[in-house]
Design brief:
The complex is a heterodimer of chains A (591) and B (105). By secondary structure, chain A is mostly helical. In chain A, 67% of the residues lie in helices and 3% in strands. Chain B is elongated. In chain B, strands 1-2 form a two-stranded antiparallel ribbon. Chain B has four helices and two strands; from the N terminus they run ααββαα. With 105 residues, chain B is mainly alpha-helical. The longest helix of chain B has 46 residues. At the A-B interface, helix 5, helix 10, helix 11 and helix 13 of A face helix 1, strand 2 and helix 3 of B.
Amino acid sequence: MDAQTLTYLFVAVSFALYIGIAVWSRAGSTGDFYVAGGGVHPVANGMATAADWMSAASFISMAGIIAFLGYDGAVYLMGWTGGYVLLAMLLAPYLRKFGEFTVPDFIGTRYYSNTARVVAVVSLIVISFTYVAGQMRGVGIVFSHFLGVPIDWGVAIGMLVVFFYAVLGGMKGITYTQVAQYCVLIFAYLVPAIFISLLITGVPVPQLGLGATVADGSGLAVLEKLDRTLVDLGFAPYTQGGKSTIDVFAITMALMLGTAGLPHVIVRFFTVPKVSDARRSAGWALLFIALLYTTAPAVGAFARLNFIDTVHDRAYGEVADWFHNWEDVGLIGWRDKNGDGRIQYGPGMPFEGKPEFAGEARGVDGQRMLLNAAREGTNEVYVDRDIMVLANPEIAMLPPWVIALVAAGSLAAALSTAAGLLLVISASVSHDLLKKTFARGLSDRQELLAARIAAASAIAIAGYLGVNPPGFVAQVVAFAFGLAAASLFPAILLGIFSLRMNREGAVAGMIAGLGFTFGYIAWFKFYAPHMNGPDAWWFGISPEGIGALGAALNFAVALTVSHFTAAPPASVVALVEDIRVPAGVSTPHMH
Amino acid sequence: MTTRDDHADAADGPRRELTRAHAYWRANLRLVASLLAVWFAVSFGCGILFVEPLNRIEMFGFPLGFWFAQQGAIFVFVLLVFFYAAAMRRIDRRYGLDDDERETG
């Protein structure tokens, strides 16, 4: 069978599996719908959390980003795992003891204020929609690359599948499909990684392969060879970064705090039976995530090495087929600046912007003609970073079933994250906005119906954003983490660790953190993008890292304001005393 | 047999309960603070602030600082969270505040 037939088969079988699981685990009550009845085993929850967390970005883009950033890629590796340490030790066990359904629920109750609850709902919705648009787009792209289906159809199919199991199964359905999706995605990630590690170093464990000797008789270690090759081509060495230390520090911190404050991740810890389960479950989640996150830097380094080896200084007519295939898709562009018919790869952009092709026109060597204006410098190749994972099986000449596996794996990653996000959006609308704020009389059945309607509408909006991606989606990923770091994380942390923190302090802190972070990112990304550079940044911190400063501002404002305003009521102090102790945990649907 | 002490105990009950919870909380904070110190040291310390001096040390084909930043810190994170879960369980039991079934009823 060819790769495309196999891909159809793998994708169809995995989708059937997800839908089968959803039918088997339908939600019967709001407790089932929001937190799977609080009865999920910690290891299963760990897997579900890992799938929930690892999105299309982790699966498809991260290794490619690392391949091109080298050392600087560490901000994502450490930032997106280190946040789990904070989550496990500072938030998850206490929020599980609190025993409610949503993150705004905790903030609204702890700060005895519907203003606080609504501020939390607004940040949650902004964060989650930013994220979900990217997932739907990822689904569409995978469909179009691997199955030859138009992107819009891909998005529609993805919407349909998510609709089926999120609306029907709620958190319960999502949890068990996420367990299956984790298995699919990690298998799909590790298999090509192991093959490539074997190919380049002869070591089957990619984590060790990254430190091993290249099996080409040169006697050089992988990183040594990469450093030398890149320096020869005029790049900075792979193991040294280009960003300033303070910026790397700030971005890592913002990503860690943001990860710990992401509602769709936090809410997963509401689904286990006990406080001690929440702690253990965080360990399992991080272990399952680490499996992919420690493989990614190896994949990135191997891919970069492989890419340079197979592309640089080759005649266009003789370069491997994958180069031509991905050029056809538009993710690779080659402009023969010196007219020698050979591909030269080097630092800098080959031409302005993303490739725009002159229809099907071909040059003397058969390459697609580009409309973009050429730039100074020797580099002739444009390469989209996402190729590093998507084309890896082809670059390493792996069998067709591996390619099919990568397609099924990237869909699993995108769908599992999308479902988790849609669930927190619908829960915050039906539970926090309706039941707890604007329609208090709702019965459990009415609330369940409202949650399903909210989930369905959220899917429709996400699908719309996937088909018509706002031009700024790529620009605003920084928003999601920055906003979570600057608003939700400090509010929840202070709510647990300070008995004195009150409504006034928390609301002022969240608004200050949100406003500052939002303003800084908007200024550099939209209002004055030409100024977006280290010279204009405050303290040399880029918009990606500003959430760290926003969080610090939130803490400072919250502590100052609460110091000068009335202490929280005794009932709230008692609540905080209670969530600090694991004993006497209740199941959420008892509320 | 009812003695004077028993009555005193009953009256002291809630307060003793609270002191016990407070002692438990302090033990918890001590544990979390020391684990977060390790968390900070391996990531922000070894992986970012001291990455350059550490890169001069070579281990198993990796410059050490680079290894911490791209692999080592993540391994330590995983160990930290499992260690935390186990250590907290011990503290829970020591103060009789664990969430085993007999407690929750």
